Write a sequence for this structure.
């Protein structure tokens, strides 16, 4: 991953005189994506380029860190992932390639996000800036929009849609920079991806045969999306997930040190005994090696990665 990619985006937006641009509005539904490609004036696209460039300026010095579905990044950092991570990036692009024409108008309340596609006239670069459409819905659907004409305030009868220079996601080649954590889930189908990856993690854990009553543990984890994210994250940070139970003495030590309500069945094949849902997170933290002791003060620490 090139840490200078976002800085290159800013420089290209700043130094290029002529752009090829498309403004695409999309609706995400269970059955797929519907995209609209209205005709847009040069005044709007020029303003959007300038607004996006200005808003990116204070992001280019942030430190890129891998996207974590369970936590937002810290101050001074910016998350990223690959387009393959989201699972359905190609589906979104396909809807961009086959947009509906807008002849009768589009209700802004029906839209999920817009994408501002920018390239130079020689195709030296191509960037896609995604933005969820949420900020202006209440105004356009249930409030009153008005404008001044001299000293008279007139109601705007048409439905309105607000565009700003803020960006939720920046797609550069095969990388996605995440400026708004929740938007990655809202724009793409990450729930399905989390579920698939959680199933893979649970398959590995089940094959270890180190958790008794595993079928119930698996079912209880699958019943809550939060655990899908936690299990998905495990695949990212623990390449040796199949070996987490190799040292049961350390598992016993962690259970005793943190006074966890978990028992171990001893024998030739020691197992963690799973009894009820309240134990799910503690067991997943054991698997994720999240129970630690600090070196300097010897404090007990739970490090959820």
């Amino acid at each position: 991953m090139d840490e200078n990619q976002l800085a290159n985006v800013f420089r290209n937006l700043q130094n290029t005189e002529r752009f090829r641009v498309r403004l695409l509005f999309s609706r995400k539904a269970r059955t797929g994506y519907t995209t609209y490609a209205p005709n847009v004036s040069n005044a709007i696209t020029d303003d959007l380029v300038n607004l996006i460039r200005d808003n990116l300026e204070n992001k280019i010095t942030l430190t890129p860190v891998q996207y974590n579905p369970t936590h937002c990044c810290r101050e001074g950092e910016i998350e990223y992932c690959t387009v393959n991570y989201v699972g359905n990036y190609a589906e979104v692009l396909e809807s961009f390639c086959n947009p509906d024409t807008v002849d009768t108008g589009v209700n802004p309340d029906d839209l999920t996000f817009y994408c501002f596609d920018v390239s130079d006239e020689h195709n030296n670069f191509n960037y896609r800036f995604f933005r969820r459409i949420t900020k202006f819905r209440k105004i356009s659907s249930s409030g009153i929009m008005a404008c001044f004409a001299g000293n008279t305030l007139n109601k705007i009868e048409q439905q309105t849609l607000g565009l700003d220079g803020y960006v939720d996601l920046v797609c550069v080649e095969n990388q996605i920079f995440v400026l708004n954590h929740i938007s990655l889930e809202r724009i793409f189908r990450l729930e399905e991806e989390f579920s698939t990856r959680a199933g893979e993690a649970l398959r590995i854990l089940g094959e270890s045969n180190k958790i008794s009553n595993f079928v119930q543990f698996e079912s209880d984890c699958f019943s809550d999306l939060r655990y899908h994210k936690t299990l998905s994250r495990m695949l990212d940070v623990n390449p040796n997930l199949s070996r987490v139970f190799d040292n049961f003495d350390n598992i016993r030590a962690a259970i005793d040190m943190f006074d966890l309500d978990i028992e171990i069945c001893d024998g030739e094949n020691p197992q963690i005994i799973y009894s009820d849902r309240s134990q799910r997170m503690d067991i997943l933290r054991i698997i994720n090696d999240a129970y630690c002791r600090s070196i300097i003060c010897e404090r007990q620490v739970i490090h959820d990665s």
Remarks:
- The mean pLDDT is 87.
- Residues 192-302 form one domain.
- Residues 23 and 39 are 8 Å apart (CA to CA).
